Fold Type III secretion protein, HrpO family.
Amino acid sequence: MGEAQIVQLAGELLWLVLVLSLPVVLVASLVGILVGLVQALTQIQDQTVAFVIKLVCACITLALTHHWMGEALLGYAARTLDLIGQMGS
């Protein structure tokens, strides 16, 4: 495995981390904005409400996307380990 392959694998890993974290971050951000708007309109300024709602939505998002995330991570790990195994040959 040459330096170019290592750089390529590192780039793929960073892209994979970005893609896998995007659904949870996006949902938490949108829910945070909506909860903040509702809190501003109703003048309820309790921080635990926003935290609990965002936490529940993030958990639901993880539960809905865990199969896809697992497949993507396992695919990357398998490719990486195959390349490492080919180094000895």
